[in-house]
Design goal:
Length: about 240
């Protein structure tokens, strides 16, 4: 269930034994992960716009699987969200980082991020999440009939040995970030002929992307990430 019931006073969002935030935040972490002359980032660009200009032996595809195959078996449905951001002139807004509203409100949860990051400030920012049927694809809908459609796309995917379908959209399954990192390392290990544990030890979570880009660099005059941008859309899609 998305909203677990607890019988203790643990008010953390997740109950994993080991939980951490990057020391300097996620932005810095991704900037460092992408800071390589071998990684080039192209933003706001569908991979289809550039795929013909780039020579590759293996592609890592993180987009929706139905889109990859031109929706030939129909569109896989997703649940989406609309986010409403608010800043309040108060140090804290709610008693916990995430408060769920499963009943009468039009929004389903409110997140107050400073609890998660440990930020100290006299104001606070919160985000309301409104469930939507359309919009960016966030949550696959795990129904039997959708599973059957996915299975058909999976058969097409299995027939493309040079494309690795990785992540939530490409495998039509909801994963948390730790699971996605594990999946990425497994795929990288497979490509590089290593076991996942070796892949994890040898490299950071984006190693798969970095390695592919190193082996098969983009051939255009695309700008690198020297400006410190953090969007990894293309880096993760190719
Ligand atoms: C509201 C919300 C809250 C969440 N909270 C948590 C949390 O607290 N903890 C946690 O562990 N996980 C959380 N998750 C889940 C987490 O976001 C996912 O596990 C993670 O983002 C999945 O990574 P991914 O690489 O599979 O997919 P994504 O992060 O969706 O990455 C896919 C990438 O592919 C790009 N792409 C897609 N199609 C194309 C195309 N045609 N051409 C080029 N690029 C393309 C997209 O732009 C995107 O950058 C949350 C998810 C949501 C929606």
């Amino acid at each position: 269930a998305r909203v677990p019931t607890r019988t203790n006073r643990d008010d953390r969002y997740f109950t994993d034994v080991y939980q951490a935030m990057p020391k300097q935040g996620f932005t810095k972490m991704f900037e460092k992960m992408l800071d390589s002359p071998n990684i080039k980032i192209l933003l706001n660009c569908d991979y289809r716009e550039i795929v013909k200009q780039i020579q590759f032996r293996e592609m890592i595809y993180t987009g929706p699987i139905d889109s990859f195959f031109d929706y030939q078996y129909g569109k896989l449905p997703y649940r989406s969200l609309e986010f409403k951001h608010e800043t309040h002139d108060t140090e804290t807004f709610q008693p916990a980082p995430v408060v769920n509203y499963p009943n009468d409100q039009p929004y389903t949860r409110v997140t107050e991020f400073k609890y998660l990051t440990g930020q100290e400030h006299k104001k606070t920012s919160v985000v309301y999440e409104y469930p939507r049927a359309t919009g960016d694809p966030y949550y696959p809908i795990p129904r039997k009939e959708n599973g059957k459609v996915y299975d058909k796309y999976k058969m097409l995917a299995d027939a493309c040995p040079d494309v690795h379908f990785v992540g939530r959209l490409a495998t039509y399954k909801y994963y948390n970030m730790d699971q996605i990192v594990a999946q990425a390392l497994t795929v990288y290990g497979k490509i590089a002929g290593m076991k996942r544990i070796e892949a994890g030890a040898a490299t950071a979570a984006t190693a798969a992307t970095a390695a592919i880009n190193r082996k098969f660099p983009l051939n255009g005059n695309y700008s690198s990430n020297g400006n410190g941008t953090t969007n990894s859309e293309i880096a993760s899609a190719i």
